[in-house]
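Exam review. A common question shows you a sequence with its structure tokens and asks you to describe the fold in words. Practice with the pair below. Do the first one on your own.
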Amino acid sequence: MKEKQKVSVVTGGCGFIGSHIVDRLLVEGHMVRVIDNFSTGRLMNLDHQKSNSDLKIFEKDIRNIKDIDPVFQEADYVFHLAALADIVPSIQRPWDYYSSNVLGTYNVVECANRAGVKKLVYAASSSCYGIPDGFPTKESSEIRPQYPYALTKRLGEETVLHWGQVYGLPVVTLRLFNVYGTRSRTSGTYGAVFGVFLAQKLAGKPFTVVGSGEQTRDFTYVTDVAEAFYIASVSNIVQEVFNVGSGGTYSVNLLCELLGGECVHISKRPGEPDCTFADVTKIRTILGWEAKVSFEEGVKKVLENIDYWKAAPVWTPDAIRNETKDWFKFLGRGDKL
């Protein structure tokens, strides 16, 4: 008797990380249903799969539970990545972030629970740690979100874990550290460093380095992250939180060197850690996952696909200063640029 085809729902599946998870699931023979409202996701991220009959894309918003509920029927797995990201817009429009990242997550776990899924894997954020006391940072470290985006992602994580605790929904949450790679966001919002730098490189402009550039980040390549989601989904582990990081931490100056280009320095920003560095002992020990793509190899892959960022805005120091005024106003307790 032929085994029933597995059905997976990926919220935010046309986005950066979500589209790579879709690719991974299709390789495994899953029927994949994507939910995306295209606020940041791009249909072109899955253009290479458009002839795949196992992929169905639904343009829906997770804030509307009645609209999304039918997509979850008879699903085996749920990968919840739909969310609003970036710091400045979360300060300026906190309700948008609460409605998407908290209410939307409530809707997703409710639909998943009704469907009786085998596992829900949630994309949590390492921003929940704020400015940690120690490195590498363990899952047991104090939670201290610095801005509304970080808080709403943490509240989403709490919701997921609570549905596991109270209703027995099989859940795992993955706290992602500085994911980069092909298909990263090109939206008009000032955000992740790779999107900013790649658009600047294409335009022949200098990289806008915050502070000295000696700050380090746990840059983790996106296909490694997609693999972590898949391994978490098929494991028998539930009700656990795992860091997902590269096993290293790399300076912004090193990134500039690998990308190749001139730099200009802009003001250091409040609420940002000097280092992000995941302790990945837990996920390596329990799930057997570890990152495989080196930072140098990952940057090379990105540069090979740099034309993707042609649509991204080109940020100048003056434009960044204007865009981040509220960042300094609120997170800096009124400090001026």
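Now try the second one, then compare your answer with the model answer below.
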Amino acid sequence: MTNSKFAVAQSGGPTAAINATLLGVIEGALETGGEILGAVNGIKGVINNDFLNLNDTFSDPKNRELLKNTPGSYLGSCRIKLPDPETDTEVYERIFDVFKENGIDKFVYIGGNDSMDTVDKLSRYAKINNIDVSVVGAPKTIDNDLAGTDHTPGFGSAARFVASSVKEVARDSGVYAEKSITIIEIMGRNAGWLTAASALARSENSTAPHLIYLPERPISREKIIEDVRNCPETNIIIAVSEGIRDENGEYYCSQTTQSHDIFGHAQLAGCAKVVEGFLKEEFGYKMRSIELNVLQRCGGHFTSLTDLNESQHIGKRAAHAAIKGRTGVVMAFERTGDYVCTVIENNVADVANKERKVPDEFISENSNDVTDAFMKYARPLILGDVQVITEDGVPKHITR
């Protein structure tokens, strides 16, 4: 392999597996014998010419193992929407001047839907201006909503955390003989993959969650009330996506304060509290709402070994693609057989700014549960136990 000078960055919301992908990129770059730089805080780090030399730190196998098991984004993150490269070139001129100044000819960007927009725009600008820099995307998102891939790195570990948390909440609520309802709010604006994963909590001695509501299917208050009334359980556990909508298409959480990020996405929270309110009014049972919030994406103490290993592998494949001079592509998983996953390439323009929602065949006909097909799809992604590295009784992490 010829020497290449790499840059790598992480963007968007962190996950428990995004650093495993970073490790894969680093390992792929180290194989070339070249230098690898990490941009601090995503594309913002490139714009600011703010890089870390990753060679020395991660030549040490102990640090590589720590990185794989550390949640969050080691390099930091950002949310920046770049302008159209055909009409507004100033920021691109700056980015590629920084690449040239540092001798960078390979750039791997790890992120989700919006980050792939950045990969698309950078590769388009380079092509328009005949700049020989390979720009490759490596996927991540706990939301599992990236187009063109069977699943996304980070989802398996988040799904495992959600399922485990739901099971433990069920154990807690089940100690009382009195009727109760617990509503658990799970991340998912328009795609309910992670909320659907709550069904993985079920086992021979646990039927929770008893009701599951996803944003893919609008659901009225009256239907939720009817479902609860027909549920035979004493201690009812309900899993709801943060983005569930009513029959008019309005977010349930729209009754609470709502803001938007730089990409215009609604930042949602509070739907569980809204559901708790009208169920309390209807039934008068003991009622509790729980928002798992960022714990879903930063819980590194109970990750999926399958997820971490796949995340590392897809990062290395992204580095290999860049070495081969591929550009404007994003890595993806393709599933074959019962559960065999291979890494493929997609044109990033076909992926950027698109959402992959939970398909109809994964949602029950009455819109309050998932199907066996979903369980078969999701179960392999949460398998495998990780030996957590600890220090003084708590997980040990590596930070820059």
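Model answer, second protein: The two ends are 29 Å apart (CA to CA). The chain has a mean pLDDT of 94. Full marks require stating both points clearly.
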